[in-house]
Write a structure and sequence with these properties.
There is one protein chain. With 388 residues, the protein is an alpha+beta fold. It has three domains: 7-120, Butyryl-Coa Dehydrogenase, subunit A, domain 1, CATH 1.10.540; 124-224, Butyryl-CoA Dehydrogenase, subunit A, domain 2; 228-380, Butyryl-CoA Dehydrogenase, subunit A, domain 3, CATH 1.20.140. It has twelve helices and ten strands. The protein has helices spanning 7-25, 29-35, 40-49, 68-78, 83-102, 105-117, 227-263, 275-303, 309-334, 345-352, 362-374, 382-387; strands at residues 122-125, 140-144, 147-158, 165-171, 177-183, 189-192, 205-216, 220-221, 265-266, 269-270. Strand 9 (265-266) and strand 10 (269-270) form a beta hairpin. Helix 7 packs antiparallel against helix 8 and helix 7 runs parallel beside helix 9 (309-334). It is globular and about 80 Å long. The relative contact order is 0.11.
């Protein structure tokens, strides 16, 4: 069972992080959106100072050791501000959490204490330019004595400009996928940036090339062939994190739309008094409320050490659909001025679209959900527990 922080300690940490988000990070939005670059000399020290890099790193390694139920509201708050900053926090914590579960004792001792402070940063290297998703990989890792030799390419790798270590998935046989920790400075490993993205400006999504990259066998995570299992577990909880990001963006869009509708006057009265606008606001609130409930359910199950393959894909899919609808309606509430950078709605609209692609496209979420249900997977919830 995931215990998390005691209530008083959590309240203090959450308050500190929220204060940092709005007082120190949110004011950087205009600069980041204009330059399309995150000022790391400012942002990284700020994130370190509030403990953002160690939120779900276990306490024995210097992190805060939050439960997932405690972590999701903080990640959601990050998703209300500039998306590139949210991406840094999301990716780093996701991979740190994965390593804490699947890494060896030596690997965790080597990386997690520095990951908790932000001295080291983590990224996942899965997606490839000429392949599909999951185990559809061309990158290979061949055993050679005490080393593995990795060859291949990855792309769209978030945090590739700041990560010190990459969790790399590669084929070790025709049918087996394995996972490796590859330090950034390993010979033969090169990183180049890809073109800037539509939203979440400043977060780099780079292309990685492995040319006879040698890593010690000690950097194999688990055993050969464990990569598929590692991948599924890491993506499972990370999909929940993407849904929490969708919740934050949607909540902020609703908050701004409600405020704007009450202040914007046409024909002598606030547009909030008009039935069409009220319909938009109500629809937005319904999506936010539903997504919050789904996230509470999956967080409780994960913290109870239950696997949630179907629920994770469902909440990720519902989250991206919900934030899409909410930001659509937010733009309609704001009208033409919402299409300009005068209001954050324009940025939230663009930032939200990354959620469609992170941790698998909609077709993957439908595939996973249907596969689990057809295979006999069942899920319960607090509602049915109460009825029982």
């Amino acid at each position: 069972m995931a215990v998390g922080l005691p209530v008083d300690d959590y309240t203090k940490l959450r308050g500190s992080v929220f204060s940092t988000i709005w007082n120190k990070l949110d004011p950087l939005e205009e600069q980041i959106e204009t330059t399309e670059k995150i000022p790391y000399d400012i942002v990284l020290p700020v994130l370190r100072s509030c403990g953002a890099f160690g939120l779900i790193v276990p306490r024995e390694y210097g992190g805060s050791g939050l439960s997932i139920a405690q972590y999701l509201p903080i990640l959601s708050e990050f998703a209300k501000i500039q998306g590139g900053v949210r991406a840094i926090v999301h990716v780093h914590n996701s991979i740190a959490h994965a390593l804490s579960e699947i890494g060896s004792t030596e690997q965790k001792a080597e990386i997690l204490p520095c990951a908790a402070t932000g001295e080291k940063s983590l990224a996942i290297a899965l997606t490839e330019p000429r392949n599909g998703t999951g185990a559809d990989l061309s990158t290979t890792a061949r055993r050679d004595g005490d080393d593995y030799v990795i060859n291949g390419r990855k792309w769209l790798i978030t945090n590739s400009d700041i990560a010190s270590h990459f969790l790399v998935f590669a084929k070790t046989s025709e049918r087996e996928v394995s996972a490796f920790i590859v330090p950034r400075d390993t010979p033969g490993f090169t990183i180049v940036p890809l073109p800037e993205t539509m939203g979440c400006k400043g977060a780099e999504h780079g292309e990685l090339t492995f040319t006879d990259v040698r890593v010690p066998a000690s950097l194999l995570v688990g055993a050969e062939g464990d990569g598929q299992t590692h991948m599924e577990r890491a993506l499972e909880i990370s999909r929940v994190f993407v849904a929490a990001s969708s919740l934050g963006t949607a909540t902020r869009a609703l908050e701004l739309s409600l405020k704007f509708a009450q202040e914007r006057v046409t024909f002598g009265k606030p547009i909030a008094e008009r039935q069409a606008i009220q319909r938009y606001l109500a629809e937005m609130a319904i999506d936010v409320y539903a997504l919050r409930g789904m996230l509470a359910d999956v967080a409780a199950k994960w913290d109870a050490e239950r696997r949630i393959p179907a629920e994770a894909s469902m909440v990720k899919q519902f989250g991206l659909e919900a934030v899409g609808r909410v930001t659509d309606r937010a733009l309609l509430v704001h009208g033409g001025i919402g299409y300009t950078r005068k209001h954050p709605i324009e940025r939230l609209y663009r930032d939200a679209r990354l959620n469609w692609l992170e941790e698998g496209t909609p077709t993957i979420q439908y595939l996973v959900t249907a596969r689990e249900l057809i295979g006999g997977y069942t899920f319960d919830d607090a509602f049915n527990a109460v009825l029982a």
